[in-house]
Amino acid sequence: MDLSAFFKMSYGLYVVSAEAEGKRAGCVVNTAVQVTAAPPAVSVAVNKDNVTAGVIADAGAFTITVIDKTADMPYIGNFGFRSSDTYDKFEKYGCETSAVGSPYSPEHVCALLACRLIDTVDVGTHLLFIGEVEDARVLSDEEPLTYSYYHAVLKGKTPPKASSYQAS
């Protein structure tokens, strides 16, 4: 089987975030998709080992921001290659609060989806969080950052906890 076929699928890059009991967490994901239009719902896959997964479960809500092409590797590294357990990912890039109470950084993002958690599906290494969208906003006219652009232009790597990670 040629698992590189998955790289031909179109993906974006997103920060998914939540806050519960005073703990804020967020991480970069590439698996956020619209599930339905009425009611508007999305799903997002988060590695079970990520602090963010536990915070989303505790909060019962999450916010997805669509990373745009103005983002650089330090921004992506801030949210994607550090742990919310030991580092405040929102301090450097600013922090606002979405309609569902989740923190999000307004920098380098072109859209926001604030969601109430309606279901969680265990898919092995990841949890698939399904949320009904309570607020959706376009934050800029910048183009979304695709996973292909991240690899080809920014020369980004796929971390082991990513849903698309493939061991060499």
UniProtKB/TrEMBL annotation:
Signal peptide: none annotated. GO terms for molecular function: FMN binding; riboflavin reductase (NADPH) activity. Keywords: Oxidoreductase. Residues 6-152 form the Flavin reductase like domain. Coiled coil: none annotated. Transmembrane segments: none annotated. InterPro entries: Flavin_Rdtase-like_dom, NADH-dep_flavin_reductase, Split_barrel_FMN-bd. It holds the Pfam family Flavin_Reduct. PANTHER family: FLAVIN REDUCTASE, FMN REDUCTASE (NADH) RUTF. This is Flavin reductase family protein. It comes from Enorma phocaeensis.
